[in-house]
């Protein structure tokens, strides 16, 4: 069986097979990557944006990393691979900008705060003071230290004079999605979350829209990092999510464009 000609043909076939596999696998390897670290509240529009942007740019792979803006900021300062930071907080972008990590920045979209309850027992609130009644033993908000939605909620409750009454009833969540889960599972009576997240949730209802004058404008900025590679793709993506094709994804999710 050990015939030189067969060995030669076998080696040639193996080499050809390896070459074909390398070429087929090289399609993904040759794709240019775009690393986007984004606030958890942007998950719905960005997952759809990934599908559409990649379909229009078959040579690009969009890698999404979701977490609270504060946690993402900490990851970026520790050197995590990030080309674009889409934050739910101007402050977190300011902080990495002060460290000299930002090449350019843009204000993209705006959001609102609402109170939600489980749909099975929801009732409309007349005003924020209703949260101080005995009907609400626990209320979930994002942790104000790391979650922008929690900072906005705390600011609003303080400005409306109910923080002191509610502080001991608050359950602090790691992100807005977790706060919603507490409501969906009836672990709390209510939560203060972004309007966009409430609209995307199936088993909660918005029972009160929080007065916009009680908290700073909830601006979603984009920061292009100095470490970003494939600058042409970065520029194309930033432009795409602000133009009609990408913008409609965010507006359908409840975000308000700042680029009218």
UniProtKB/TrEMBL annotation:
Signal peptide limits: 1-22
Superkingdom of origin: Bacteria
Gene3D superfamilies with a match to the protein in the record: Periplasmic binding protein-like II
Alphabetic keyword roster: Metal-binding, Molybdenum, Signal
Protein's UniProt keywords contain Metal-binding: yes
GO molecular function, one term: metal ion binding
Pfam families the record matches: SBP_bac_11
Cited InterPro entries: ModA, ModA/WtpA
GO BP terms, alphabetized: molybdate ion transport
Binding site for molybdate: 41, 69, 149, 176, 194
Family: Belongs to the bacterial solute-binding protein ModA family.
Record protein name field: Molybdate transport system substrate-binding protein
Organism this protein belongs to: Texcoconibacillus texcoconensis
């Amino acid at each position: 069986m050990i015939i030189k000609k067969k060995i030669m043909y076998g080696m040639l076939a193996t080499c050809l097979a390896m070459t074909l596999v390398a070429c087929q696998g090289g399609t993904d390897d040759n794709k240019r990557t775009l690393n986007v670290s984004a606030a958890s509240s942007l998950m719905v529009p960005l997952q759809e944006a990934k599908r559409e942007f990649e379909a229009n740019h078959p040579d690009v792979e969009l890698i999404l990393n979701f977490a609270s803006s504060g946690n993402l900021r900490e990851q970026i300062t520790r050197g995590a691979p990030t080309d674009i930071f889409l934050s739910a907080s101007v402050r977190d972008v300011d902080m990495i900008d002060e460290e000299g990590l930002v090449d350019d920045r843009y204000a993209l979209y705006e959001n609102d705060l609402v109170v939600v309850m489980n749909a099975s027992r929801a009732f409309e609130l007349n005003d924020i003071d209703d949260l101080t009644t005995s009907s609400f033993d626990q209320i979930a908000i994002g942790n104000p230290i790391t979650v922008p939605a929690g900072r906005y909620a705390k600011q609003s409750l303080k400005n409306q004079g109910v923080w002191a009454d509610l502080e001991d009833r608050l359950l602090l969540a790691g992100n807005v999605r977790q706060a919603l889960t507490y409501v969906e599972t009836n672990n709390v009576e209510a939560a203060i979350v972004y309007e966009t997240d409430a609209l995307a949730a199936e088993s909660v209802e918005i029972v009160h829209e929080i007065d916009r004058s009680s908290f700073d404008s909830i601006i979603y900025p984009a920061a292009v990092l100095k470490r970003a590679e494939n600058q042409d793709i970065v520029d194309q993506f930033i432009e795409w999510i602000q133009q009609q094709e990408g913008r409609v994804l965010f507006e359908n999710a409840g975000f308000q464009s700042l680029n009218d």
